[in-house]
Design a protein that fits this description.
- The protein has eight helices and three strands.
- It is mainly alpha-helical and 157 residues long.
- It has two domains: 121 residues, no CATH class; 29 residues, no CATH class.
- The termini are far apart.
- The model has no long low-confidence stretch (mean pLDDT 80).
Length: 157
Amino acid sequence: MFDLTLTEAERNELTIIELARDVKLHFLELGGLLVENQEKALWSQNHESFREFVESLGIGSYSWVTRLMDLSRVVATQLLSKQELMEIGVAKACLLFPRLKKGKLDDDTKELARHCPYYDLRVMLGYKAEDELSEEYLICPRCGAEIAYHEGMIRKR
C-alpha cells in the first residue's frame, strides 16, 4: 500500500522500481525454465528445434532468450549471485559473459560493473568504443530520424 502523502510522480516512480525488481526475478525464473526445457529436450515433443520452440513462445528474439538463459546459468553456477546481478543490471551483466565463461571475473570488475555506466564499462572491458568507429547516417523513411550505421550496429542520432 502506498503512502497517500506521496505525489503521483513519486508513487509512479516507486511502482516502476518495484515492477523492475519483479521483472529481474522473473527473468531468472524464466531463463531457468528455458534452460531446463533445452537440457531435457522437452521442446522436442512438439517442435523440430529448440529455436522453433523459442520463436513459437513469442517472448522475444532467439538471441534475447539465449542471453536470458545465459544469465540464469550464471546465477545457477554461482558465478554471480541474484543480488549481484540485480545490482549490476542485465545489460551490463551480459558484457561480463566472456569473463564469466572463462572464470576470470574478479571483485574489482564486479564493483566496476555496479557503478560504471554501460558504455564506459564496454570500453574498460576491451570492447571497441563506438566513437572510434566511422559512422555513416541513414534517414529513416518512416520518421525522418538520422540513424548511425557502422559495421552492423545501428543507433538513432
